[in-house]
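Narrative summary of target 7.
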Amino acid sequence: MKTFGKRALCRALAPLALAGLAGAATAQDTMVGYVSPIASQPGQAMANEIMETMAGELGWDYRMLDANLSPDRQVSHVDTLVTLGGDVISSWSLDPNAVAAAYTRANEAGVPVIGVNSEGPGVTMTVWWETNLCVDGGAYDVQAAWIKERRPEAKVIVMGGPPVPSIQQNTRCFEAAAKAAGFEVLAQVDNTKDSTANAATIAADLLVRHPDADVFWAYNDSSALGISAAVMASGKGVYGGDSTDGVMIFGMNGDEEAIAAIREGRITGSWDPDVYGMAAAIVLGMKSLLDAPGDAQDDLIVKARLLTADNIADYVPTMDRGYTIDTVPLLK
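Modeled conformation, tokenized:
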């Protein structure tokens, strides 16, 4: 027999208090929540809009709470969603150790947790970007091979970001792939302020100290755009568009500003992790957990694509992709 916590028991009994109603809760009684790591980031803003729309189409009440890069706020938001009566929570862990207890409290209240690019105690299942998996032959090996084909003896600078585990892992993975490809990694720095302006300042200094650098890899697109500004201000060109000279600059996230920059030759490339696909996969995971409570669910991996001048003409804007939970672009 299923054991109900106080919160779950109240929700289960509430329909019986309504005249003429009895039995299981309907879709309209379902509330799902997402704790965004930073809601102002363009991809996160789109993901929130997509999830809200898809949840509404399923008749669910959807709530998003913004951690704004604060692990403490993320812990509080998870607890808040449980208190509000959430049936499933999705969260991109900023600090797995800090939020583990909150996830566990959610589980104890009967609320499963979907980790976004996150795993650990209390995480029931995970939705992964392909770019957030560090595996042989994965995204970073593919990117290193792309660079090696065009610049066999690349000298690389790697720019990470805030001390978020998923960001740190991506940075380590690319650096390892670059070294395995035989590239010289000149420096690894972090844009801890997570801003375009700070990335430009850091890159300007690095270009003075490493004038022979011919590849910059950045953990996100806003950093890549800052690097691009610094490279052009230094009088160097950018590899991209019709130019096969200059400094290669790569970002990640497939933000609209980065798409425009690839088309204009201001950055070389960006990984499109498919934000629409991620949002749809989260909703699919939520539905699976709601439809089969207590059953183990497989992790979901969303396909990614390295966008460059070679394939940017085929790019479909994120919000035009229109996936449903039946057409999520998953790796098999």
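Residues 275-291 form the longest helix (17 residues).
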